[in-house]
Protein 1
Amino acid sequence: MTDIAKGLEGVLFTESKLTFINGSEGILTHLGIPIQEWAEKSTFEELSLALLDAELPTAEELARFDAQLRANRAVADSVLDVIRGMPRGVHPMQALRTAVSYLGLTDPEAEEITPEARRAISVRLIAQFATLIAAINRTQEGQDIVAPRTDLTHAGNFLYMLTGKEPTPEQARLFDIALILHADHGMNASTFTAIATSSTLSDMYSCITSAVGALKGPLHGGANEAVMDMLDEVGTPDKAEAYISAKLDNKEKIMGVGHRVYKNFDPRSRVLRDYAEQVANKEGKSNYYQILETIEKTVVDRIGSKGIYPNVDFYSGTVYSDLGIKKEYFTPIFALARISGWCASVIEYSQNNRLLRPDAVYTGLEGQHYSDLKDRS
């Protein structure tokens, strides 16, 4: 008999210096530094560079990297024309998947798989994902594309391209923190997909296009959008407890609750909850936040003892909504952050590459012979 690890749970296939997760204790670190410290003290730009190089950068290295990101924000007009030509109403992740694939056609270095080329392409991808996603949103809304600015932070520039208005420092910082929290998370489905594609020695754009396709699935990237659907269904805070209790009694899934890895509070959800609360307090306790508070309390009281707690998706949607981002774009925003982790993981695995080739236990028929079509009933 052979044990099968369904969903590859518990299977170790590589080593990594980037991210450590202790799900039972609710710990997440990058380069050994707790995610709470990254969120409090760092920026998305710094974390991206730290992941790419697997070490903390110096001030000079960070300044150089930041300048490279700013210089590479613009994309070719042909890429924007492809985005403009996409049918109205397409799924934003479909649009992003196509845009990333086409972006590779405009990069003369796209077919290079040397370490130097992979890193240079990674810088461009991190910079340009923001431009692609903002452009997709604008065209799908029937608005003109807003060109990137080089005088804003990565987070601030994205919000500017999305809305056409320069965000406040508080808005830019809040979005920066949200990007930090989603930048990398170990061997999740999309990161594993990127690595699997990379292991064949395929090009970087193919790796990232594969990752976008994996993230599109609702079991991976779409949970925060589903949380907002749930909040709209609940309607008002006074209905939240009864709504969730009924779900629990019927053993139905509650979106944004539970995690494949964490059997304790997702540390990212603790950070986002604090910021969601700050935003809500400024607005006099927003309706969404009050519903989430009630849902969390009900869930923890009822099933917290089973290791089921809110995850990062639970509060991220409300933060994005407060920044004026529509829920259809929550998953592309996930990609906007995770592009750093995808690129870093591909680069790391490429240093000691081995083609990924798992096996399956055969459960089909044996001893059969081919029969002619005329003889089959």
Protein 2
Amino acid sequence: MLAAFVNLWRLKHLRKRILFTLFMIAVYRIGTYVQVPGMNAALLTSSQQQNALFNILNLFSGGAFYRFSIFAMSVMPYITASIVVQLLQSGVIPRFEEWAKEGESGRRKLTQVTRYLTVAFGILQASGITYGFVREGVLYFHDWWSYVVIVLALTAGDTLLMWFGEMITEKGVGNGISIIIFVSIISRFGQIGQEIYQNWFYAHPGPLFWSVVKVILLVAGVVALFALIVFVQQAERRIPVQYAKRVVGRTIYTGQQTHIPLKVNAAGVIPVIFATSLLFLPYAVAMYFSQRAWAAFIMRYLSPQSSWYIALEIVLIVAFTFFYTHIQINPQQLAEQLQKHAGYIPGVRPGLETEQYLIRVINRITVFGSLFLGVISVLPYTILRGISLTSVYMGGTSLLIIVGVALQTLQQMEGQMLQRHYRGFIR
């Protein structure tokens, strides 16, 4: 592992990408401390124990939400916009579906639409949050222009983060938006550990032996959970494929055996991020109309502390996993490519039967993968609530994102190193 890290810095191209990514992360972390004007920090800090959804926003923004900095909304509006655009590609808007099939030019058009929607959702979310804080006395100003300035500052911060993510994806390593969320969650680990100590150990002192046992069980549980997540994220179903002997021009291609690797969780952490963002949107709108009956209903039942929220999050994660898996893996296209290159699955006829076979296999493994994502996403928070640590928020969503982004980034660097005959990290 140490040799792999040394080799990592020998590659000039990869070294520049890593340094660029670190620079963008440093700028982002500095920006989380740039506060918008007119905030009463003491009241905002004291209110963090009263709203579990605020704890989620604070976690995903790396503490920027409770400082009410320009990056307080993190990348939530961008993620929501991405969800909407991907859903509209599935036959809802034919033009979007055509763009999705046009390759690079169509992707640029869809990216532009996503940017516009990000600004629109950012304005909506910033307006709701600002209005809610004004009603609670956290923000104070005397005219409507100050309200506009705060909303524009929050929206500009969200748009800047979107640009940071695109630049990291293009010139850095890993997926930029995922890297930003990853850094935000990691930056909160120290504070979460402090809260666990104060609420579990310091507030309830006991014999030293039992304190040591608690620490050992806590560390062992976290390590076991991480190991389980890594195991499932790396698990795959290998479908054997046989290629027949064929002649192309004067070249003879002999038959060979290979396999199609289908990951148990092909969608990665995208369904978890999508579900969390989608559940937050109605809550943000309800904050703007908090006096209405329907808004009170949403704020009551879509609070992360409610059982309805947990159940709905699992359902959305399962649905988004199936949806995104079939976007990532197209059985019809895969079957056509096999037939085109004289390949077939032993015991399955090429063409339609191969497509149907692939659909059945993908659906079976996705059932397990989606249920795993759903259960893991709510398990840590449920355990913390069961041992009376309700003031500490650490959902499985955070752990899934950490593992998923770390593996994705390592695999990208692994590919860069293997291309230049260097041994990588993953063995």
Protein 3
Amino acid sequence: MALALLTACASTTPRVSANLDSYERELDAAHYSLSEFTVGDGEGAPVEVGREDFQKALAELARSVPFSAHSMESARQLFAQEHEVEFLAQVKEGQVVWAVPLEPGSTARPRDWGSMTRNYLQWCDQEQGGGDCIGLLEDGPTLRGDDLRTLGLAIALGSVLREMKSALVEAANPRALLLSAVWSVGLYLLMWVVPEPLTKGVAAMVTAALMAWLGVDTVWRLMTGWVDLVGQADSAESFAELGQAGGRYGKVLGEHVARVLVMVVAAALGGTAARLAEKLPRLPGYSQAAVQAETQGSMPLSMVVEVESVAASPQGSFSVLMRGRRGSGGAASSGARGEAVTLIHHQGGNRQVMIHGQRWHVPANRSVKDIPRHDPVGDELQAVTTRVAETWSPARLNQAERDAIRDARSQGKHWLAHLLEREARGRYVHAQVVDQFKQVRWNRVGVDAIDPRTGYKYELLTRSSSNLARHGRRMAEELFRMVSF
């Protein structure tokens, strides 16, 4: 359902030619549809969810969440398969007790963990009635590592955290449910602190639902604000600094946004994608969210279960990949031209197709039969590009690139540092391939290269969901092979 909202980017449904032959129709039935949402283009605004409705919904959701004596671990398991981040983990007696994402070049700052822990317990006394109120000491006597991020989030939630505690008071295990919800929200948000932010499966459905309830611009602020909080929490040397960081993110959230965030993630606790899809229509504000999704041009919210992944680009856009429903579905069977599968069906009717082990972009007015059966020049170009990409390392950065990346990290903008390094890698690969591959004509505009003998076109690009989506949109009218690295 939520996904629908994400798919909103598609204001028109993909065109299907009535003249497709049986092979084309079979290929078309195996498609995925991709929609893109750009920050600033949406008209959506957060759906307001009042305190009473929020607490009623949370109490209802609590009845379907299985009890877990290990709240942090169950929260990690919820999105365990969604993480694409490389983590540094501390293991105790065979169990992971904490994990933090590795940041190249980052260094941990010294902290007085004893003082930080005492201040945390004082905060619990003031805000939650005492004790280890959000379970940060379940894995040891003092705070450590990712505890600071979760504590920063709890501070940001403010009064909504107190509303949660009140709503769950009659639940069988109120504290366990509260901890599972808080940790799950934090782990979901952590998925966006990566070079190529991507959510898949249940997490992708959560993202789609949030876009329906909150609007594209608010979700973007929610995520970029969290990236800032993570950087500030990692560098905080005192509880006061952490409290200030949490307070700033609390202003980004606001009560209504915080309630929606907690509510949607809580709906995912202990369930599958199908069960989440069943719960969403019962959440407060669903009707308004459904209307907002339609206003933004998306498919019905009831289609959220079809969401495959949601990728975000640092430039300010979301790409939503959704399983196709046209035809009988499934992968296309082998035909006279070999097995072919439509990987992405863009809203304009253009497609990205995998055939003969090659990825091609096919315009809406062209057929997959226009793709050459044999492309030795393209095969060699792909091989050269792959070899060159394997020779890349940060040691190849020039001084200007190193300075820019260092400045970004010093400001806590780790996403920008990753982006700058990725762009440097792309420039390196492109320059090296151009220098080593002289048999094609290289262009400054349009597709990167053209084989002068055959007219076949090639585009070099990094193999990321957001980049593949952008290239398909930017050159929708061109037939070209996608040479990725």
Protein 4
Amino acid sequence: MRASVARFSDGPAHRRRRAYAVAMLDRLDPAALARDAAAETGAVLERIAAAGTGREPVDLMSAVARPVPVAVLGRALAVPDDDLTARVAAAARAYQPDHDGGRDAARRADAAVDALAAGDRSEGSAARIGLLVQACEATAALVRNGLRHGSVQAALRDDPPVPRTRRVRNGAVVPVELRGHPFGAGPHECPGRAHAVAIASVMVDLLWPRAFFFRY
């Protein structure tokens, strides 16, 4: 998958692969994603309350911050998968070229990507999975940091969810600092800024009164 997505390519290949992701995102209304995220977050909070776990803090990232954005984007992108969050999270952990999770993590990531692709190994399929993978940890971290700082905008200004990343330049993978530009800039600027902010903002608004339920 890394060999087929825009993030780890440049030149004509990057432009062609990025176009797939941009076209998918252009079909998604951030306001509609926010409404779905609100409903999904409410459902998760109801399940937590019904389980009687309110007496002990619940892990924010695994209980809400990862699964809600992944579920919302998965539905919007028509990715049918009963185990979507676990598979996307497994792929996300191995997404960076220098990940050191070991052979078991690599095998889990490969199996997750195979399941998400469902036999479609096209660049369009890779772009769809890439959107889910890149949204998984980054949007979760934006929700967490938004709760820490009181709002998503404050988090983007003072504590960006991804302070640094990696890009491909002239065929080499290079580190890129993102402070001051939390969604990047130039040809590799994240095309999903409006979507991520819409999802994370409504989640922070709903979680803020219940922040004491969670550890993060």
